[in-house]
Amino acid sequence: MRGVIVPLVTPFNEDYSLDFQALEEHIGYLEKVGVHGIFVNATTGEFTSLTKEERKLLAERGRELVNASFYLVGTASTNTFEVVELTKHAEDIGADYAVIAPPYYCPLNDEALFIHYSMIAERTDIPIILYNIPSCANPLSVSLIKKLALEYSNIAGVKETIDSISHVRDVIFEVKGERKDFKVFTGLDHHFLNTLILGGDGGIMACANFAPEIHLKLFKAFEDKKPEMFEYARKLAKLSQVYNLASSFGSAIKIAMQLRGFPVKPVLRPPYVIDGKETREKIKELLSLLELIP
C-alpha cells in the first residue's frame, strides 16, 4: 500500500442519521479517480461521535462498496478490550488494515502504550497501522514505534499526523531503516511530498476528500520524477490552510465538499458544529484561488 489514502468523512442526514446514499456516491467517486486507499471510521469520519454499533455498520458497508482500493478501518478506543473487539470485527469483514490511534483522555507512558498495542497485536492477525496524533491522543515516540514494529510483524506501519518533519524523518530512518516493509504515512497534506522524499510511503490526508486530484497528481509526478511535484506540493501547502479557517477540521472539510458539489451534506454530529456564512466565504475564497471552484 502506497500513495493517496483518504480518511473518509462520515455523511449524515439533517437528523444526524447515517447517510448511506452519500457514502456510496462518495466512495464511488474516489475509486473512479483512482485513490489508493479508503479509510472509514477515521478522525475525519468523526468516529468519537459514533456508537460502537454504527462504527461496525459503517465498516461493513464500506467493505461492500470499496473494490479497487485498499480498505482501512479505524478501531481506536480508550478501552483496550473494545479496540480488540473492533479490530477483530475489521479482520472478520475482510478489511486490509486496522488503523489504531492511542487511547485519548487519560495520559499514558510508553510502557502502558506498549502493553495496549501488544494486547491488540497478540489477539488479532490483521495488519495494524499505528496512528500518531499527539494533538488528540497520547503521543507515540519514535522508540515506542520502533519497539512495536520490531516485536510484532502485524504492526505494519504508522500514520503520522504530527507537524514535525524531523519526527517523520526519524521514524523513516530508524524504524523503516531496520524493517523495510514498515509503512510510514503522513496525515498532513502539506507534508506529503516531504514524507515521500524522505522515503515514506504516502499520505492519509483529509483534504483528499474534496481535492484528491491534487494529491494524485503530486504522487504520480513524484513517482515519475517530474518537477511538477513541487507545484502540486505548493498547492497542497496552500490548501491545508483550510483547517485554519474553521472551528474544526470536520467543518472545514464538509464545507469545502459542499462548495465543490459533493453529495455529502454540511452536517456534523454534536458536539461538533458546522461554521456559518463568514467561514464558508473564507473557504470559498481559498478554493477559488486554487481554481477548485469557479
Properties at a glance:
45% helix; Aldolase_TIM; 11 helices; 4-hydroxy-tetrahydrodipicolinate synthase activity; 294 residues; single chain; Dihydrodipicolinate synthase; 8-stranded parallel β-barrel
Summarize the structure.
This protein is an alpha/beta fold and 294 residues long. The protein has helices at 20-33, 52-65, 80-92, 110-123, 142-151, 165-176, 192-198, 212-223, 228-239, 249-259, 277-289, and strands spanning 3-7, 37-40, 70-74, 97-100, 128-132, 155-160, 183-186, 202-204. Strands 1-2-3-4-5-6-7-8 form an 8-stranded parallel beta barrel, surrounded by 6 helices.
- Give the CATH H-level superfamily: Aldolase class I
- Order of strands, main sheet, comes to 1-2-3-4-5-6-7-8
**Could you say which structural class the secondary elements and strand pairing correspond to?**
alpha/beta
* CATH topology description: TIM Barrel
- Element-level helix/strand string: EHEHEHEHEHEHEHEHHHH
What are the low-pLDDT stretches, counting only 5+ consecutive residues below 50?
none
Radius of gyration: 18 Å
Overall spatial form: globular
How many H/I helices?
11
Number of self-contained structural domains: 1
In the CATH classification, which architecture applies?
Alpha-Beta Barrel
Strand content: 5-15%
Number of strands: 8
Share of helix among residues? 40-55%
CATH class: Alpha Beta
Which whole number gives the mean pLDDT? 97
Description:
Its main location: cytoplasm. This protein is α/β, with parallel strands linked by helices. It has one domain (3-227): Aldolase class I (TIM Barrel, Alpha-Beta Barrel), CATH 3.20.20.70. Helix content is 45%, strand content 12%. The chain contains 11 helices and 8 strands. Strands 1-2-3-4-5-6-7-8 form an 8-stranded parallel beta barrel, surrounded by 6 helices. Helix 1 (20-33) links the parallel strand 1 (3-7) and strand 2. Helix 3 (80-92) runs parallel beside helix 4 (110-123) and helix 7 runs parallel beside helix 8 (212-223). The longest helix is centred in the first third of the chain and has 14 residues, at 20-33. The two termini are 34 Å apart. The model has no long low-confidence stretch (mean pLDDT 97).
